[in-house]
TrEMBL record:
It comes from Oryza barthii. InterPro entries: AA_transpt_TM. This is Amino acid transporter transmembrane domain-containing protein. Its main location: membrane. Residues 1-332 form the Amino acid transporter transmembrane domain.
Amino acid sequence: MMLLVACRRRLADEHPKIASFGDLGDAVFRGPGRLAVDTMLVLSQASFCVGYLIFISNTMAHLYPVFAPSSNALLSPKALFIWAMLPFQLGLNSIKTLTLLAPLSIFADVVDLGAMGVVLGEDVSVWLAKPPPVFAFGGLSAILYGIGVSVYAFEGIGMVLPLEAEAANKKKFGTTLGLSMGFIAVMYGLFGAMGYIAFGDATRDIITTNLGTGWLSAAVQLGLCINLFFTMPVMMHPVYEVAERLLHGKRYCWWLRWLLVLAVGLSAMYVPNFTDFLALVGSSVCVLLGFVLPASFHLKVFGAEMSWPGVLSDVLLVLLGLSLAVFGTYTSLLQIFHSSSA
Protein backbone atom coordinates (compact mmCIF):
# COMPACT_ATOMS: atom_id res chain seq x y z
CA MET A 1 0.00 0.00 0.00
CA MET A 2 2.74 2.45 0.91
CA LEU A 3 4.63 1.61 -2.29
CA LEU A 4 1.68 3.12 -4.17
CA VAL A 5 1.70 6.22 -1.96
CA ALA A 6 5.47 6.62 -2.45
CA CYS A 7 5.09 6.42 -6.24
CA ARG A 8 2.27 8.96 -6.26
CA ARG A 9 4.29 11.41 -4.14
CA ARG A 10 7.36 11.04 -6.36
CA LEU A 11 5.33 11.66 -9.53
CA ALA A 12 3.25 14.51 -8.04
CA ASP A 13 5.14 17.31 -9.84
CA GLU A 14 4.94 15.66 -13.26
CA HIS A 15 1.46 14.18 -12.77
CA PRO A 16 -0.40 16.36 -10.22
CA LYS A 17 -3.80 14.73 -10.76
CA ILE A 18 -3.08 11.15 -9.65
CA ALA A 19 -6.18 10.45 -7.56
CA SER A 20 -6.56 6.68 -7.95
CA PHE A 21 -4.75 3.40 -8.55
CA GLY A 22 -5.69 3.63 -12.25
CA ASP A 23 -4.26 7.14 -12.56
CA LEU A 24 -0.98 5.87 -11.11
CA GLY A 25 -0.95 2.96 -13.56
CA ASP A 26 -1.37 5.43 -16.41
CA ALA A 27 1.42 7.67 -15.09
CA VAL A 28 3.86 4.76 -14.74
CA PHE A 29 3.04 2.46 -17.69
CA ARG A 30 0.73 4.64 -19.81
CA GLY A 31 -2.39 3.02 -21.32
CA PRO A 32 -1.53 -0.64 -20.58
CA GLY A 33 -0.90 0.22 -16.93
CA ARG A 34 -4.27 1.93 -16.54
CA LEU A 35 -6.06 -0.87 -18.38
CA ALA A 36 -4.52 -3.57 -16.16
CA VAL A 37 -5.32 -1.68 -12.96
CA ASP A 38 -8.84 -0.69 -13.99
CA THR A 39 -9.76 -4.21 -15.09
CA MET A 40 -8.51 -5.90 -11.93
CA LEU A 41 -9.76 -3.12 -9.65
CA VAL A 42 -13.31 -3.34 -10.99
CA LEU A 43 -13.28 -7.14 -10.75
CA SER A 44 -11.86 -7.18 -7.22
CA GLN A 45 -13.90 -4.35 -5.67
CA ALA A 46 -17.15 -5.58 -7.23
CA SER A 47 -16.29 -9.11 -6.06
CA PHE A 48 -15.76 -7.86 -2.50
CA CYS A 49 -19.26 -6.41 -2.57
CA VAL A 50 -20.66 -9.64 -4.03
CA GLY A 51 -19.10 -11.39 -1.04
CA TYR A 52 -20.68 -8.86 1.33
CA LEU A 53 -24.16 -9.48 -0.09
CA ILE A 54 -23.67 -13.26 0.03
CA PHE A 55 -22.64 -13.08 3.69
CA ILE A 56 -25.51 -10.79 4.66
CA SER A 57 -28.19 -12.71 2.75
CA ASN A 58 -27.02 -16.16 3.89
CA THR A 59 -26.83 -14.96 7.48
CA MET A 60 -30.30 -13.41 7.35
CA ALA A 61 -31.74 -16.54 5.72
CA HIS A 62 -30.18 -18.58 8.54
CA LEU A 63 -31.54 -16.26 11.25
CA TYR A 64 -34.98 -15.75 9.73
CA PRO A 65 -36.03 -18.78 7.64
CA VAL A 66 -39.25 -17.08 6.47
CA PHE A 67 -38.90 -17.89 2.76
CA ALA A 68 -39.48 -21.32 1.23
CA PRO A 69 -36.51 -22.90 -0.62
CA SER A 70 -36.56 -22.45 -4.39
CA SER A 71 -34.54 -23.91 -7.26
CA ASN A 72 -34.75 -20.53 -9.00
CA ALA A 73 -31.61 -18.52 -8.11
CA LEU A 74 -33.59 -15.27 -8.34
CA LEU A 75 -36.27 -16.47 -5.90
CA SER A 76 -34.20 -18.41 -3.35
CA PRO A 77 -34.22 -17.21 0.28
CA LYS A 78 -30.77 -15.70 -0.24
CA ALA A 79 -31.94 -13.86 -3.36
CA LEU A 80 -35.09 -12.51 -1.69
CA PHE A 81 -33.03 -10.94 1.10
CA ILE A 82 -30.75 -9.39 -1.54
CA TRP A 83 -33.78 -7.97 -3.36
CA ALA A 84 -34.94 -6.47 -0.05
CA MET A 85 -31.54 -4.81 0.51
CA LEU A 86 -31.16 -3.34 -2.97
CA PRO A 87 -33.38 -0.23 -2.55
CA PHE A 88 -31.39 0.83 0.52
CA GLN A 89 -28.07 0.11 -1.22
CA LEU A 90 -29.16 2.17 -4.22
CA GLY A 91 -29.70 5.11 -1.89
CA LEU A 92 -26.41 4.68 -0.01
CA ASN A 93 -24.41 4.20 -3.21
CA SER A 94 -25.80 7.46 -4.56
CA ILE A 95 -23.73 9.38 -1.98
CA LYS A 96 -21.10 11.21 -4.01
CA THR A 97 -17.84 11.37 -2.01
CA LEU A 98 -15.85 9.26 0.44
CA THR A 99 -15.86 12.13 2.94
CA LEU A 100 -19.66 11.97 3.23
CA LEU A 101 -19.44 8.19 3.65
CA ALA A 102 -16.91 8.40 6.51
CA PRO A 103 -19.50 8.53 9.37
CA LEU A 104 -21.20 5.38 8.01
CA SER A 105 -17.84 3.64 7.76
CA ILE A 106 -16.89 4.57 11.34
CA PHE A 107 -20.26 3.34 12.63
CA ALA A 108 -19.84 0.08 10.70
CA ASP A 109 -16.34 -0.46 12.13
CA VAL A 110 -17.49 0.10 15.71
CA VAL A 111 -20.31 -2.44 15.26
CA ASP A 112 -17.87 -4.87 13.64
CA LEU A 113 -15.35 -4.67 16.48
CA GLY A 114 -18.07 -5.35 19.04
CA ALA A 115 -19.39 -8.33 17.09
CA MET A 116 -15.91 -9.79 16.55
CA GLY A 117 -15.13 -9.41 20.23
CA VAL A 118 -18.25 -11.35 21.19
CA VAL A 119 -17.45 -14.10 18.64
CA LEU A 120 -13.93 -14.46 20.04
CA GLY A 121 -15.34 -14.73 23.57
CA GLU A 122 -17.80 -17.42 22.44
CA ASP A 123 -14.98 -19.31 20.68
CA VAL A 124 -12.94 -19.37 23.87
CA SER A 125 -15.88 -20.62 25.96
CA VAL A 126 -16.71 -23.38 23.42
CA TRP A 127 -13.06 -24.45 23.27
CA LEU A 128 -12.74 -24.57 27.07
CA ALA A 129 -15.93 -26.62 27.36
CA LYS A 130 -15.02 -29.25 24.72
CA PRO A 131 -11.80 -28.84 22.70
CA PRO A 132 -12.16 -30.52 19.26
CA PRO A 133 -9.26 -32.21 17.42
CA VAL A 134 -7.45 -29.70 15.20
CA PHE A 135 -4.65 -30.00 12.66
CA ALA A 136 -2.11 -27.28 11.89
CA PHE A 137 -1.88 -27.89 8.12
CA GLY A 138 -3.94 -29.78 5.56
CA GLY A 139 -1.32 -30.03 2.84
CA LEU A 140 0.04 -27.55 0.29
CA SER A 141 -3.27 -27.12 -1.54
CA ALA A 142 -5.02 -26.17 1.70
CA ILE A 143 -2.30 -23.61 2.50
CA LEU A 144 -2.59 -22.00 -0.96
CA TYR A 145 -6.39 -22.00 -0.65
CA GLY A 146 -6.08 -20.31 2.74
CA ILE A 147 -3.65 -17.71 1.38
CA GLY A 148 -6.25 -16.82 -1.25
CA VAL A 149 -8.88 -16.19 1.42
CA SER A 150 -6.35 -14.25 3.53
CA VAL A 151 -5.33 -11.96 0.68
CA TYR A 152 -9.01 -11.34 -0.06
CA ALA A 153 -9.40 -10.14 3.54
CA PHE A 154 -6.97 -7.26 2.88
CA GLU A 155 -9.27 -5.72 0.35
CA GLY A 156 -8.33 -2.06 0.75
CA ILE A 157 -5.53 -1.75 -1.84
CA GLY A 158 -7.80 0.10 -4.26
CA MET A 159 -8.81 2.59 -1.56
CA VAL A 160 -5.32 3.69 -0.47
CA LEU A 161 -4.72 6.50 -2.96
CA PRO A 162 -8.26 7.98 -2.72
CA LEU A 163 -8.02 7.92 1.09
CA GLU A 164 -4.55 9.47 1.12
CA ALA A 165 -5.76 12.17 -1.26
CA GLU A 166 -8.54 13.13 1.19
CA ALA A 167 -6.46 12.78 4.37
CA ALA A 168 -6.30 15.98 6.44
CA ASN A 169 -2.70 15.30 7.55
CA LYS A 170 -0.85 13.40 4.84
CA LYS A 171 2.39 13.24 6.86
CA LYS A 172 0.69 10.94 9.38
CA PHE A 173 -1.03 8.79 6.75
CA GLY A 174 1.67 6.09 6.65
CA THR A 175 1.79 5.70 10.43
CA THR A 176 -2.00 5.61 10.68
CA LEU A 177 -2.24 3.06 7.88
CA GLY A 178 0.48 0.86 9.39
CA LEU A 179 -1.14 0.83 12.82
CA SER A 180 -4.56 0.16 11.31
CA MET A 181 -3.36 -2.75 9.16
CA GLY A 182 -1.40 -4.22 12.06
CA PHE A 183 -4.49 -4.12 14.27
CA ILE A 184 -6.64 -5.63 11.50
CA ALA A 185 -4.09 -8.42 10.94
CA VAL A 186 -4.18 -9.34 14.64
CA MET A 187 -7.99 -9.28 14.75
CA TYR A 188 -8.42 -11.31 11.55
CA GLY A 189 -5.76 -13.79 12.65
CA LEU A 190 -7.42 -14.30 16.03
CA PHE A 191 -10.88 -14.49 14.45
CA GLY A 192 -9.83 -17.21 11.99
CA ALA A 193 -7.62 -19.22 14.34
CA MET A 194 -10.01 -19.20 17.31
CA GLY A 195 -12.94 -20.17 15.10
CA TYR A 196 -11.12 -23.29 13.93
CA ILE A 197 -9.71 -24.08 17.39
CA ALA A 198 -13.24 -23.91 18.84
CA PHE A 199 -15.08 -25.96 16.19
CA GLY A 200 -12.43 -27.96 14.29
CA ASP A 201 -13.65 -29.66 11.12
CA ALA A 202 -17.21 -28.57 11.94
CA THR A 203 -16.26 -24.94 11.22
CA ARG A 204 -18.64 -23.52 8.63
CA ASP A 205 -17.95 -21.07 5.81
CA ILE A 206 -19.67 -18.29 7.76
CA ILE A 207 -18.37 -18.78 11.30
CA THR A 208 -21.28 -17.05 13.02
CA THR A 209 -23.60 -19.90 11.98
CA ASN A 210 -21.53 -22.14 14.30
CA LEU A 211 -22.68 -20.15 17.32
CA GLY A 212 -26.08 -21.82 17.46
CA THR A 213 -29.31 -20.05 18.39
CA GLY A 214 -30.11 -17.42 20.98
CA TRP A 215 -30.20 -13.65 21.24
CA LEU A 216 -26.42 -13.27 21.60
CA SER A 217 -25.71 -15.24 18.45
CA ALA A 218 -28.38 -13.33 16.54
CA ALA A 219 -27.03 -9.98 17.79
CA VAL A 220 -23.50 -10.86 16.67
CA GLN A 221 -24.63 -11.97 13.23
CA LEU A 222 -26.75 -8.84 12.79
CA GLY A 223 -23.79 -6.71 13.88
CA LEU A 224 -21.54 -8.21 11.23
CA CYS A 225 -24.27 -7.78 8.63
CA ILE A 226 -24.67 -4.10 9.58
CA ASN A 227 -20.92 -3.62 9.20
CA LEU A 228 -20.85 -5.07 5.68
CA PHE A 229 -24.07 -3.31 4.68
CA PHE A 230 -22.58 0.14 5.40
CA THR A 231 -19.12 -0.78 4.12
CA MET A 232 -20.36 -1.73 0.64
CA PRO A 233 -20.80 1.88 -0.64
CA VAL A 234 -17.20 2.67 0.38
CA MET A 235 -15.81 -0.40 -1.40
CA MET A 236 -17.80 0.34 -4.57
CA HIS A 237 -16.23 3.81 -4.86
CA PRO A 238 -13.23 2.71 -7.04
CA VAL A 239 -15.67 0.94 -9.39
CA TYR A 240 -17.65 4.15 -9.79
CA GLU A 241 -14.45 6.14 -10.41
CA VAL A 242 -13.53 3.85 -13.32
CA ALA A 243 -17.07 3.59 -14.73
CA GLU A 244 -17.77 7.33 -14.57
CA ARG A 245 -14.42 8.14 -16.16
CA LEU A 246 -14.95 5.74 -19.05
CA LEU A 247 -18.68 6.22 -19.61
CA HIS A 248 -19.64 9.66 -18.26
CA GLY A 249 -16.67 12.00 -18.71
CA LYS A 250 -15.53 11.73 -15.06
CA ARG A 251 -18.85 13.24 -13.95
CA TYR A 252 -21.06 11.86 -11.15
CA CYS A 253 -23.78 9.61 -12.59
CA TRP A 254 -26.41 8.16 -10.26
CA TRP A 255 -28.05 5.86 -12.83
CA LEU A 256 -24.70 4.28 -13.75
CA ARG A 257 -24.07 3.60 -10.07
CA TRP A 258 -27.52 2.04 -9.76
CA LEU A 259 -26.84 -0.27 -12.72
CA LEU A 260 -23.57 -1.41 -11.12
CA VAL A 261 -25.27 -2.09 -7.77
CA LEU A 262 -27.93 -4.17 -9.56
CA ALA A 263 -25.21 -6.10 -11.42
CA VAL A 264 -23.43 -6.86 -8.12
CA GLY A 265 -26.73 -7.95 -6.53
CA LEU A 266 -27.58 -10.31 -9.40
CA SER A 267 -24.07 -11.79 -9.29
CA ALA A 268 -24.44 -12.48 -5.56
CA MET A 269 -27.66 -14.40 -6.21
CA TYR A 270 -25.90 -16.81 -8.57
CA VAL A 271 -22.64 -17.41 -6.62
CA PRO A 272 -23.16 -20.67 -4.69
CA ASN A 273 -20.28 -20.92 -2.20
CA PHE A 274 -18.97 -18.07 -0.05
CA THR A 275 -15.48 -19.35 0.86
CA ASP A 276 -14.63 -20.78 -2.56
CA PHE A 277 -15.59 -17.45 -4.10
CA LEU A 278 -13.35 -15.56 -1.64
CA ALA A 279 -10.40 -17.85 -2.34
CA LEU A 280 -10.70 -17.54 -6.12
CA VAL A 281 -10.93 -13.74 -6.12
CA GLY A 282 -8.13 -13.43 -3.55
CA SER A 283 -5.82 -15.80 -5.42
CA SER A 284 -6.32 -14.16 -8.79
CA VAL A 285 -6.95 -10.41 -9.00
CA CYS A 286 -6.28 -9.51 -5.35
CA VAL A 287 -2.78 -11.01 -5.35
CA LEU A 288 -1.91 -9.14 -8.56
CA LEU A 289 -3.30 -5.86 -7.22
CA GLY A 290 -1.79 -6.23 -3.76
CA PHE A 291 1.67 -7.59 -4.60
CA VAL A 292 2.61 -7.59 -8.28
CA LEU A 293 1.43 -4.17 -9.50
CA PRO A 294 2.61 -2.03 -6.53
CA ALA A 295 6.08 -3.62 -6.60
CA SER A 296 6.27 -3.26 -10.40
CA PHE A 297 5.28 0.41 -10.21
CA HIS A 298 7.80 1.06 -7.43
CA LEU A 299 10.56 -0.68 -9.37
CA LYS A 300 9.84 1.41 -12.46
CA VAL A 301 9.64 4.74 -10.59
CA PHE A 302 12.52 4.27 -8.12
CA GLY A 303 14.61 1.53 -9.77
CA ALA A 304 17.37 3.80 -11.06
CA GLU A 305 18.15 5.18 -7.60
CA MET A 306 17.58 2.14 -5.38
CA SER A 307 20.35 -0.05 -3.98
CA TRP A 308 20.35 -3.74 -4.83
CA PRO A 309 18.48 -4.79 -1.63
CA GLY A 310 15.62 -2.47 -2.59
CA VAL A 311 15.53 -3.76 -6.16
CA LEU A 312 15.69 -7.35 -4.91
CA SER A 313 12.79 -6.79 -2.49
CA ASP A 314 10.57 -5.46 -5.30
CA VAL A 315 11.55 -8.32 -7.65
CA LEU A 316 10.90 -10.93 -4.95
CA LEU A 317 7.51 -9.35 -4.22
CA VAL A 318 6.59 -9.60 -7.92
CA LEU A 319 7.73 -13.23 -8.11
CA LEU A 320 5.91 -14.12 -4.89
CA GLY A 321 2.71 -12.52 -6.16
CA LEU A 322 2.88 -14.30 -9.53
CA SER A 323 3.54 -17.66 -7.86
CA LEU A 324 0.64 -17.21 -5.43
CA ALA A 325 -1.65 -16.11 -8.27
CA VAL A 326 -0.90 -19.16 -10.44
CA PHE A 327 -0.96 -21.87 -7.78
CA GLY A 328 -3.65 -20.23 -5.64
CA THR A 329 -6.02 -19.79 -8.56
CA TYR A 330 -5.44 -23.39 -9.64
CA THR A 331 -6.21 -24.83 -6.19
CA SER A 332 -9.25 -22.55 -5.80
CA LEU A 333 -10.69 -23.72 -9.13
CA LEU A 334 -10.07 -27.34 -8.14
CA GLN A 335 -11.95 -26.75 -4.89
CA ILE A 336 -14.86 -25.11 -6.74
CA PHE A 337 -15.16 -27.97 -9.24
CA HIS A 338 -14.87 -30.52 -6.44
CA SER A 339 -17.64 -28.78 -4.47
CA SER A 340 -19.93 -28.56 -7.50
CA SER A 341 -19.49 -32.27 -8.33
CA ALA A 342 -19.90 -33.44 -4.72
